Amino acid sequence: MITIKSIHIDNDLLEVAPRKIAFKQTTYIMKSVNYLLLLLLATLWGPSFLFIKIAGEEMQPLTLAAFRIGIAAILLGIYVFVVKGQFVKNLSFWMHVAVSGFFAQGLPFVLINWGEQYISSALAAILNGLTPLFTILIAHQATKTDKLNSFKVIGALFGFLGLCVLVSPSFQHGLTGSTMGIIAVTLAALSYAIALIYSKTFLQNSAPLTAPAGQLIMSSIYLIPMALFIETPDLSTYSWNTWIAVSFLAVLGTALAFVVYFKLLMRTNSSFVSQVTYLMPLFGVLLGYIFLNEELSGASMLAGLIILMGLLISNQKKQVQLPVQKVCTTPTC
After folding, report:
1. What is the reported pTM?
2. Across residues 105-131, what is the average pLDDT?
């Protein structure tokens, strides 16, 4: 005769399993959305260097930055006013967007516009790729939640290596550029890193769209007078190509891009968002292949693989071993 022992399973254990599955599914969806937003941001910013080159042939650096930020500020400002009915009246908010706007838009836009007059696009892309490295180092010291770990370091180095591989065909022609141009774009990368960390720290709880709109408005307030006073632009001298390039930079590369930028920053952290600088040149190559029938080289495909590997590695987390709950198999439990 076979005796079957009664098995008692704790009800709490039965409830935990579905919750774990649901949590994993939710986490997977959230991560997928974050990667899609990062790809969207790279798509919006990817062609920016090309349009800066086009507009920069006729517009001076301050004027280009002022038009780009000013038009974007008007668009987002009108939208926020229509939706919200009024702007934020908190003084500390405007102080924070003034500081973050200076480092996110005002300073780096001028530096890149100026620097690209003296260095090649390939070299500018490499120097801009220093942003994630600057970000993970500064965030480690300045924040409590975005700490440095081996995954972030390895991922950032992979991304930078992929960036170098992507622009390697330009090496045979030489990475031309003056020392001042190199310093300017490097400082722009550092400025982007500071802006990411500052915005994440002080604008975390801002209402949707108010932070990017506020940044652009404050940046416009000091950039437009500077451009008028220092460069005294003559609008009648600019061609249609220049205005088309400025329009793209303002509408897609600034207004819409910074809405996505803030959305992603509030969902993740500054280190994650900074990795967009590795994807931007990659999207530039893909857009050239799709719309301009440019060749997609083996170096480009290898670079894309390395960059994506770096992106995945840098966002890995150490697995934490949870205590295993034992299943009771005796009737006395």
Report:
1. 0.78
2. 83
